Automatic annotation (TrEMBL):
Entry-linked InterPro entries: Transposase_27, Transposase_27_IS1
Membership in a protein family: Belongs to the transposase 27 family.
Top-level division of the source organism's lineage: Bacteria
Higher taxonomy: Bacteria, Pseudomonadati, Bacteroidota, Flavobacteriia, Flavobacteriales
Full protein name: IS1 family transposase
Amino acid sequence: FGKRFINFVIGDRSHQTAEEFWETIKQHKMEKIASDHWKSYQGIVPKEKHLQTKAETFTVEAYNSLFRHFLARMRRKSKCYSRKIEMLR
């Protein structure tokens, strides 16, 4: 199973966000699409292409981690954070 990061959509975990994401990638010729078990994907991604498994999503999770790490508004406190407001100025 080839691991490619094709695109992303910034949003909440709503059905609408899943639809927006699918619209950005559906024109690509993909045999399989791996995702986590987010229920919104089930009604959007065709069943014959959809593979729900955490084992195949580690590449995108690594990208998500880097994305959050370098964008302060999405940064998780467990990776790095400022303890004082003065440090943010």
